[in-house]
Amino acid sequence: MRKLFVILLCIPFLALAQEKGIHFEHHSTWEKIKAKAKAENKHIFVDCFTTWCGPCKYMSSTIFPQEKVGNFFNANFVNLKLQMDETKDDSDEVKSWYEEAKRFATEYAVRAYPTFLIFNPDGELVHRIVGGGEADAFIAKAQQALHPETQYVTLVKQFEKHPTDAEIAKKTAKAALASYDQELANEAINRYVELVGSDALLTAENIQFLVKGAKSSKSSAYAVIKNNRTKVDELLSSKNSTANDVLSSVLANELVLPKIRHKEKQLDFKSLQQQIEHDHPYVDMTAAITYAKTQYYFAEKNWPAFKDAVNTLIATKNKNVSPISLNSFAWSIFENCDDPACLQAALSWSQKSLQDNENPAFLDTYANLLYKSGDKENAIKWQEKALATATEDEKENYATTLNKMKKGEPTW
After folding, report:
1. Could you point out which of 60, 117, 318, 401 has its C-alpha 20 to 30 Å from the C-alpha of 277?
2. Count of CB atoms within 10 A of residue 20's CB?
3. pLDDT for residue 83
4. Residue 78, strand partner residues
5. 160 pLDDT above the threshold of 80
6. Where is the secretion signal located (predicted)?
7. What are the DSSP calls for 36-65, one per residue?
8. Nearest to 89 by CA among 51, 45, 36, 128
């Protein structure tokens, strides 16, 4: 079913479910919410979301309405949903929060969605959570916000107070990376590298940590990986990742993806690769450029070229294209392309995603591709398999698709 990160679909929820779930404030202001929190001695939970964000929709439709989630958040927080984008369909209530949303984005560095900000009863930011999750795990993350010793802001204060403590620097960097606080993460990583020294950094744990922190070619983490490529390859726990993968990905993000985002036409990928490898002769950009091509042709809706780029990527990286990526590529073709050659290629990618893990979402993708290719009999068999292995939350969607297949109706 769908790209894995778009398991996160928005399903309208019933009023009854909302009564059991989190109660969000309506027709209020930030000042009134702070006053209510202070009067009730509760923290403030702010869901910073956008209308286009899949994980945001998943949290709203599936997690927030759950009774146990509502019980925890309603008892401990005054809750607010804050829409961070603006659309033509926005209600007057949403519009009344436009300026406040802009202030939150700037003042609290909201750069990814969903971001959940938690304030103490005095209205001071004490914790942040980035990204959704299942109910129990999400409650556990929010629980940390209620105790000073586990609050994000407490960790930041410790980092500021102890400039020579390497472990605090490392702990701060990890927390900052998880919270998409890249500025603090860079500062903490730089301090940690300086305090520990290059030789001591070369452990499996540290390399895993530095790989996550290497977001810029000018960062200390990038420099350590660049200068110790052979040792990094030995220490990386995943056989599907190398120092070159990390370095080339950073360079692609800096030098290639902006051109795709700006919709530059007729990109000369060959010349671009040659230029990057000339300026950075320690890196092979082949796989990173090929992956960038898949994004470029996806954005251009050039599905035959997208198909060729994905096939080249699979050939270039051999077995190192993840099942999640293969499923995502295959679903993109299913949703957007009727060309038989594209559908056959997508079927092969989908089959490959199922080799080691018959995830129900991947089974759903394969069944849909079979169905769109005209193989109704086998499509129904694979969709029944997807339905049988699906979680309770997924079964309704899969059953709906199965019924459409049996009736001969389009599933796309």
Report:
1. 318
2. 16
3. 97
4. 44
5. yes
6. 1-17
7. HHHHHT-EEEEEEE-TT-HHHHHIIIIITT
8. 51
User: How many C-beta atoms lie closer than 10 Å to residue 339's C-beta?
Assistant: 14
Strand 77-83: give its sheet, edge to edge. Answer: 77-83, 43-49, 115-119, 125-130
Cis peptide before 304 (omega within 30 of 0): no
The residue whose two tokens read 């899949």 is 54
Amino acid at 320: N
Fold (CATH) for 4-150: Glutaredoxin (3.40.30)
What six digits make up the tokens of 172? Answer: 């701060």
**Coil vs helix vs strand at 268:** coil
d(CA 369, CA 25): 43
Q: For residues 182 and 393, give the distance between their C-alpha atoms in angstroms, rounded to a whole number.
A: 34
Token couple for 381:
């068999």
Task: Identify the residue whose tokens are 């679903």.
Answer: 331
Q: Which of 338, 328, 313 is nearest to 364 (CA)?
A: 328
Q: Give the type of residue at 174.
A: K
Place of tokens 């002769």: 281
pLDDT at 18: 44
